[in-house]
Amino acid sequence: MRDTAGYEPLDERARNILMAVVQSFIQTAEPVGSRTISKRFEFGLSPATIRNVMADLEEMGFLEQPHTSAGRVPTDKGYRYYVDHLQGPEALSAEEAALIAQRFPPYRGEMDEVIAEISRLLSELSRYAGIVLRTLASAVFSRVELVKVRGPQVLAIFVLESGMVHHKLITLEEEMTQDELQRIANYLNQEFAGQPLRLIRQRIAERMAEEKVQYDQLLRQAMQVGGKTFEEAAKKDEEIVLGGTANIIDQPEFQSNTERMKELLRAFEDKSRLIRILDKCLEEPGVNVIIGSETPFKDVHECSFVTRTFHSGDRTIGVLGVVGPKRMAYPRVMALVDYTANLVTQLLTQG
Amino acid sequence: MRDTAGYEPLDERARNILMAVVQSFIQTAEPVGSRTISKRFEFGLSPATIRNVMADLEEMGFLEQPHTSAGRVPTDKGYRYYVDHLQGPEALSAEEAALIAQRFPPYRGEMDEVIAEISRLLSELSRYAGIVLRTLASAVFSRVELVKVRGPQVLAIFVLESGMVHHKLITLEEEMTQDELQRIANYLNQEFAGQPLRLIRQRIAERMAEEKVQYDQLLRQAMQVGGKTFEEAAKKDEEIVLGGTANIIDQPEFQSNTERMKELLRAFEDKSRLIRILDKCLEEPGVNVIIGSETPFKDVHECSFVTRTFHSGDRTIGVLGVVGPKRMAYPRVMALVDYTANLVTQLLTQG
DNA sequence: TTTAGCACTCAACGGCAAAGAGTGCTAACA
DNA sequence: TGTTAGCACTCTTTGCCGTTGAGTGCTAAA
Description:
Distance between the termini of chain A: 31 Å
Order of helices and strands of chain A: HHHEEHHHEEEEHHHEHHHEEEH
CATH topology of the largest domain in chain A: Beta-Lactamase
CATH superfamily of the largest domain in chain A: GAF domain
CATH architecture of the largest domain in chain A: 2-Layer Sandwich
Oligomer: homodimer
Radius of gyration of chain A: 26 Å
Number of domains of chain A: 3
């Protein structure tokens, strides 16, 4: 939900007509005219009256015309108003809910496969693209194991409080024995267990600057290894998976315009930008909708994002959702995303 | 290289003209007529003569006409003949080779990032899609570490001879102590170090059937854990990454035909089919070319694959390559793929 | 054997008129 | 005063049609 202030007040009739335009356009992808609305919806108003109202709505910035003699199309502001104030909440049908639950992947501590499967599931059910971001930003450290691989290469496996496991291959400045590594691991576990990764990184940076670290060999080595372990982790802090991008080709708005389509597919290949967008969603509670130009990235201004965070216990693990054209079936997709996020949370929490 | 037998012998002139048609079509994506060839190539032949030869080539199945009054287009058989017998080997320019070497990712035992980066590199340089398959089929086991996570969950980390590291979370039937796990790991290391994963799986299956295993607790437990460890590994035996799929949208043959484009993008999303295709390439030494209908999968009949295996020492690690339209700049792409595969092999071998 | 000439085919292009959807404005109506 | 019918106007879409041009196959001459 965005701030609702700053809108000119719309009377009942204007709201109804705006709703009719948005819904009709979402269904047909054709600009909608006054005649169409007058026929298809039972407002008991003539096209002429509707025209007047639509002209008002256009002036207020909710609608626009592709060209003079065409019908109207919602603007981003129009979609926003629709999402925030007009659409009723839609529940998933029982069959659909059952279908999702049935297709739900099993979880055995390996997030990667779950993420991939969920994004596929979301894309199939929405017929748009599915997207999942997994973050370690608020992950809590539980334990690390250090395994000598060969030479100065060491495998650091760290287990998170949520039961998730990550591993990183790090290269030390000087070779150490497995015994030394064991001692270091013990130290790190004792010192940092139960703390968020974010904080640990900070602590290590602080300690390394402290004087006494210079004199204590174990401490010095521990900080070196710990630094590498947790710093390296940062690189994989966020993992993002997209599924079903081919679905967007079916959308008529891109069919005719291959230029836009190319732009969009390229945007989807550049994960870093998507991460930036979804990062914002991590802070939003509940189902979050981003419409077209509400993101700062021009190549996705023709898209909307519907997302929701998912958790393990009270830790935020990531965010999942659907990317589709602005002309998206919002109520349905929002219900789908909400339901799926709940299921994932359940899976991770009790798993 | 395919079998060269079974071709009607082509005389010098026919070969030249076939080559001209293929090259011209690769360049322009337009069906090529007799007039064009007569002008652009210095054969000293009139269009009429060329027409006769082209008619012969069409009868033999090397060329075809989209419609009566259009020029000719190579068939898959035509491309095949071109690739096998007509194109000269092309070397990468020094600048390009340098560019690749410079953009080459560093390697520190983590394959995942290398694979992703290589596929991106291949796609950027070829302007088609880059593809990399990593396989464990011929991987050799070096060492395993078993780490208790919580309850019956155990993290199995296995190091391969090539220095690569994989991990799998497995769930035991009964909880074990870290000490027991350590003993089991020792046993597995002693027993199986230096053997291919493939073979190990087989051995374990055999042993589990043996009678004496029933009486020896350590052995029984070891087989149970080993079975899970190596069996689980099979699931991730093959990993495939595609980069730059958006590039294919630029190809004129797909621009006009969104139906084909959709089909192709969907095919790219179904990794299992791509794996099947690339699996075949694993057995081919040298640069391998697959043209259109030479794969059994209809959705990629408009594409060609150019691939080459890469190695660590004498072990095959995977296969990399480029996927593009059949109308592909074969000599250039083949040189690129060859060079890149060599670099990767070098990286993995000395790394 | 090669080539010039010719009749033929067919996609592509441009122009044009008709159709159709939609609008804004005005005047009449309840 | 709000609503609506009517109307003139705009502009895209569609279909039609003739023209153009690239390309072919065939035949007959060099």
